[in-house]
Amino acid sequence: MFALVGRRLGAAADRSFLVKRNIFHEASKIFTSDSETHLPTDVNFVDYVWKDYKKWERKFALTCGISGRNFTYGQTFGAFDRLSVNLPSELNLKSGDVVAVLLPNMPEFPITFFGAASAGLIISPLNPLYTPDELRKLLACSKAKVVVTIASLLPKVRSAFEKSPGGEMPVILVGEDDTEKDVISFEKLISKDVRGIPRLEKPGPENVVVLPFSSGTTGSPKGVVLTHLNLVANVNSCSHPHAIWNFETGDDSTIGVIPFFHIYGLVILIGITISRGNRLITLPKFDPNTFVNALKTYKPSYLFLVPPLIHHIARSPQITSEMLSNLKMVGTGAAPINSKIIDEFLEKTKNAGTIVKNGYGMTETSGGATSMQESLQPNQQEISIGKIISNAEVKIVGEKDEALPLGEEGELWIRGPHIMKGYLDNDQATKEILTEDGWLRTGDVARMHADGSIYIVDRLKELIKVNGFQVSPTELEGLLITMPGVADVAVIGVPHNEQGEVPRAFVVKREGLEITAKEVEHFLEPKVAKFKRLGGGVQFVDEIPKSAAGKILRRNLKAMIR
């Protein structure tokens, strides 16, 4: 069903499976990883993550941090195994069909993911904050055959259906709710006896497993085509002690507050935690009180966070050092981290000796792409994103696509088995970000030191990072230009103490029509998720600076901020 036009990984990219040592090759100016891992290329993601689950079958795998509901590893495996049979049987689905998942962080999310994936279905995870219009576009793009959601999000789903040319599709509802009709019970699908029901063929490593959405380096959201092998490669590499932390398996726990629909939460948080037999405590969203209660109750041994959450932990008087006394490791990514906040965080966790590692990744890299091998230290003047993960290669590239020597600044390019196949049904966008020989153009300006450490120094790509979420300026511009009174508009990210960045709109008023900043903000609000709103405000200007070719000069706009 996927018309994936564009480059498919071939022999050139397969060479990256053999990358073993941390070597800078003078001739090619390519840096290879110093972390050796054996990458299994003959297994799907579900079998890879769950290969050792019988070792901790009776231990808790999933815990709802709100209700306290628990699933052992045995119960979780049984639930998603029954789902893998009953889901396609009940809905007449076939391998390669897409299941849209609109769920907050809860135990049923990973059960849905592993159940659908083990049946050879494709999961398209969606942000519960999206508006019906946003959902409608993404459901149409993915060609989803069914939506899995909860009762509180059902009105949003049905509103999206009403605006869709294709009309409704089946809805699977998680949680008992007798008042809802015309829905399929999730509980029925994970509990119904599967004896005698034929199973779909088990997916192979090259089968597509997940279809998240990303804005790439610019533009509107695009479906990122990721295979089982892509995800296996990423968890395999990011589980290396150099990348994460050499903790024991089966006896540790983490709090899942990073959204599971985000590639960071789906692959790094769920994938690594479950593959190691650890306990994942889920929180449906970040709420200061429930987060504090979870820290106090469970005292996690590791956390995967984004910089705004580290900022909150460091400065919240509600969060004490005692709550963090078991905290061995923290991984941070998805946005730049401030050294002052790191200092405050390390001071708060000094009694636990917490290791803090910064990393970098994209949806297009299946999650992580780089990670620090050593912990961040106090008073660091400049923070690295770490080194390239195992089985991968990296180079810094100049304006003419030439590889640059160590220490020079250029675009960061990455190659390896974790790199996406391409964008769904979008040949042009695929060619713009992927080279024929397998290199991913990240859109970030970086430099690399002799030890392989990489430093991001600027951003070529136009995306705004709000709390780690991608916001496309062009998406917001396309909506704002339809407002009466707006003659021209451009959007950029401006710094924000807590959220990293927030969007600001530069607006040229249409002659003869008077509009206010509040009117512009209110026009956009119902059309987009909350994190996409104009938190940086509106600034009226006489004209939008553009190149001779008509491209918005966003750097010039930054100089105009007042």
Strand order of the largest sheet: 1-2-20-21-23-24
Distance between the ends? 49 Å
Q: Show unreliable segments.
A: 1-21
CATH C-level class of the domain at 73-203 is: Alpha Beta
Mean pLDDT: 86
Shape: globular
Number of helices: 16
Quickly give the structural class: alpha/beta
Which fold name fills CATH's third level, the topology of the domain at 73-203?
Rossmann fold
What is the makeup of the main sheet?
Answer: 6 strands, antiparallel
- Classify the beta-strand content into a percent band: 15-25%
Summarize it.
The chain is α/β, with parallel strands linked by helices and 562 residues long.
Structural account:
The chain contains 16 helices and 29 strands. The longest helix has 19 residues, at 73-91. Helix 5 (132-142) packs across helix 6 and helix 11 crosses helix 12. It is an alpha/beta fold and 562 residues long. The protein starts with 10 loop residues before the first helix and ends with a helix. It has a 6-stranded antiparallel β-sheet with strand order 1-2-20-21-23-24, with no helix packed on it. A 5-stranded parallel β-sheet has the order 6-5-7-8-9. Strand 3 and strand 4 form a beta hairpin.
